[in-house]
Amino acid sequence: MEQTLIDRKDLRVSDIQAWDIARVSNCALSEVYLMDCIAGMKHYPDKFFDLAVVDPPYGLGNKLAHAGNGKNAQSKFTDDFKKKNWDNSIPPYEYFIELFRVSKNQIIWGGNYFIEHLPSTRGFITWDKQVYIPTMSRIEMAWTSFDKLPKLVQINNNDSNRIHLTQKPVSLYDFCFDYAKMEPGQRVLDTHLGSGSSRIAANKAGLDFVGFEIDEDYFNASEERFKKFVSQTRLF
After folding, report:
1. Is residue 216 part of a domain?
2. Which of 21, 54, 117, 156 could form a disulfide with 96 if both were Cys (CB 3.0 to 4.6 A apart)?
């Protein structure tokens, strides 16, 4: 990416230096911002990103808060969610306007919850989590801008090291980048960074990456996760 388009003054920005990234892959940029994603996207010109792969709040509220009924590994995250209440509503229409403005193509997880804001598509991705808990969804769906047949992907979501209630596996984002036929050096946007799985997958694929996260706790946790990934990758 030729330039950083956001003024860093008064912002929390990832402190992973560019040369650190270059030492472990051919990724030219991996940068995340602690800020509102709508405000952040306004700094970028039209169609700046080749792909936006995003996982916004689904608006499930208490339905998500009671996932697993507190009897599984998710329970500590449901307690955290109840305090933060970040899934009470879906993003406003302005979010989707900005998202489509700054990106050429999109993969939007939870797209079935945002149908009123999205055009029709046949390119849905259905993810089978291969985790069978009665009070949790076995599948999730992603709306995509690609004119392709629907895809079913089976990737296990049972991760004891998760740092976020709705954390998705890195391998799921590996699939997304392959599905979108992304090539090294292309640009990826994630507006809701969460656990940072998309960032790790982008680095592995040699993709320029920009992410936004509005919650400082998740920002810090994802940053530590990415630092650990970079450190481990240097060993090989």
Report:
1. yes
2. 117
Does 74 reside within a domain? Answer: no
CA 152 – CA 127 distance, rounded (Å):
6
Helix segments in the chain, DSSP class H: 18-24, 37-41, 62-65, 75-84, 93-102, 170-179, 197-205, 216-234
Q: Cα(140)–Cα(100) distance, rounded to whole angstroms?
A: 22
Phi, psi of 121 (to 5 degrees): -150, 155
The 10s digit of each residue's pLDDT in 97-154 is 999 999 999 999 999 999 999 999 999 999 999 988 776 789 999 999 999 999 999 9
Question: Can you give the residue range of the structural domain that contains 94?
Answer: 12-60+90-130+139-234
CATH number at residue 39: 3.40.50.150
- In-domain check, residue 212: yes
Structural domain count, the chain:
1
- Report yes or no on 72 lying in a domain: no
Model pTM score: 0.85
